[in-house]
């Protein structure tokens, strides 16, 4: 079925094929009629969001009817949606297919040095797909009402469950699983066969949950969204799990998990700070198996360009995750001395929008490590700051927490390999480490984000 002609509430889950966005140098040789530049190519649309990846391109093509009405010719002074609809998860379910086995140019666009899929680009694609799914769910099929602004509010967790090969076809399937008054949770699963030519069914290689919020495009205030009606037992279970996660987020926002630093907490801080003080006061006597947190820092910066904007004119959330991942990977690589292997992204909040022209700074550090001989863990923090030199201001837009280990084959080749212990030099750093450890432990004990 052609999704360009399908209504937004169609139950069809036809996979959207992803194709390479570059012409092969060995195909479509220029001819005399091709004009002065010698190449005949379909013009690239000037719509925002078309410059991110082949997936973004495919999604815009698939949803062009909705996007064209919403963003190219929005109705003037149109009223808001008057009646909320009941929609099922099936009505928003969307599948995209990467034809890696047959499209060698697409493979090269996604290949990393280890013949696997570049995780940073995949994070970008996940956000783009989640955005498309949220538009599907919130559409009321009425060209006389004004559209909603839908923005990424947070990412619950992204977990890599197995390596993702770049030589085997890949699918991402996503759907709305939970709806609040003005928020939507979308679950995405990346699936791939265990090996090329295998008859086994696809297995989940990565899972992610995105939370989007709706704003009235005229007033900017929170706007209600269409309701969700789970049908199958699995859909009902996913709804209940998402409801529990939402309740936990409310508790955390309300400070319900904050505790005073009593004697036990003070002791934890003192333990963390003890070695750090030796580094600062008597560096020659410091433990050679430890390193100060501040000595693991890396940083990069950029000016946000128009090509990185989303359909609302703000910087694409997937682009921010992509850049944060690349810096986190580099930080883990420089720290471990071996090629890191990505495991997961912890909960991410998008605290403030990032605009075209903003001066964006990414600052990373190794926050703490877990020395496990079988699978050592490196926990990286990346903080994105929107800096405005003319106003002498700097605000945090995002904080990302990535977990890496090292590739077993690389570790096996390096005799005596070990992960250093990271120690804080200040009480503020120590408190931050303790808070992160407690947050991780809380999610694990309550069974969230697994």
From TrEMBL:
This is HotDog ACOT-type domain-containing protein. Belongs to the acyl coenzyme A hydrolase family. It comes from Prunus armeniaca. Residues 96-218, 294-410 form the HotDog ACOT-type domain. Keywords: Hydrolase, Repeat, Transit peptide. Coiled coil: none annotated. One of its GO terms (biological process) is acyl-CoA metabolic process. The lineage of its organism: Eukaryota, Viridiplantae, Streptophyta, Embryophyta, Tracheophyta. InterPro entries: HOTDOG_ACOT, HotDog_dom_sf. Residues 1-13 have a biased composition (Low complexity). Residues 1-39 are annotated as: Disordered. One of its GO terms (molecular function) is fatty acyl-CoA hydrolase activity.
């Amino acid at each position: 079925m052609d999704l360009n002609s399908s209504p937004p509430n169609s139950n069809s889950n036809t996979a959207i094929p992803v194709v390479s966005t570059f012409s092969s140098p060995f195909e479509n040789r220029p001819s005399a009629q091709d004009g002065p530049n010698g190449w005949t190519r379909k013009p690239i649309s000037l719509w925002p969001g078309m410059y991110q990846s082949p997936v973004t391109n495919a999604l815009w093509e698939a949803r062009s009817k909705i996007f064209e009405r919403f963003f190219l010719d929005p109705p003037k002074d149109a009223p808001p949606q008057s009646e909320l609809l009941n929609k099922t998860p099936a009505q928003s379910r969307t599948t995209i297919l990467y034809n890696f086995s047959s499209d060698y140019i697409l493979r090269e666009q996604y290949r990393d040095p280890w013949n696997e899929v570049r995780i940073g680009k995949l994070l970008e694609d996940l956000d783009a797909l989640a955005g498309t799914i949220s538009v599907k769910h919130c559409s009321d099929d009425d060209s006389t009402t004004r559209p909603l602004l839908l923005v990424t509010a947070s990412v619950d967790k992204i977990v890599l469950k197995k390596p993702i090969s770049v030589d085997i076809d890949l699918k991402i399937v996503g759907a709305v699983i939970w709806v609040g008054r003005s928020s939507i949770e979308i679950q995405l699963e990346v699936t791939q066969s265990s090996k090329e030519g295998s008859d086994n069914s696809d297995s989940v290689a990565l899972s992610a949950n995105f939370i989007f919020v709706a704003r009235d495009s005229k007033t900017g205030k929170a706007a209600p969204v269409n309701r969700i009606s789970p049908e199958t037992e699995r859909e009902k279970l996913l709804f209940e799990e998402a409801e529990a996660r939402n309740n936990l987020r409310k508790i955390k926002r309300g400070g319900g998990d904050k505790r005073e630093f009593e004697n036990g907490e003070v002791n934890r801080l003192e333990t963390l700070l003890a070695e750090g003080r030796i580094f600062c006061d008597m560096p020659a006597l410091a433990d050679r198996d430890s390193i100060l947190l501040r000595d693991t820092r890396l940083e990069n910066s950029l000016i946000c360009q128009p090509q990185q904007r989303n359909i609302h004119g703000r910087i694409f959330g997937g682009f921010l995750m992509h850049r944060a991942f690349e810096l986190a990977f580099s930080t883990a690589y420089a720290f471990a001395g071996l090629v890191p292997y990505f495991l997961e992204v912890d909960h991410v909040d998008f605290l403030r929008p990032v605009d075209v022209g903003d001066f964006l700074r990414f600052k990373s550090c190794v926050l703490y490590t877990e020395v496990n001989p079988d699978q050592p863990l490196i926990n990286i923090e990346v903080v994105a700051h929107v800096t405005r030199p003319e106003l002498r201001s700097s605000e945090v837009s995002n904080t990302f927490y990535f977990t890496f280990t090292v590739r077993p084959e690389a570790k096996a080749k390096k005799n005596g390999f070990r992960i250093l212990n990271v120690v804080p030099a200040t009480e503020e750093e120590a408190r931050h480490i303790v808070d992160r450890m407690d947050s991780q432990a809380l999610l694990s004990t309550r069974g969230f984000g697994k």
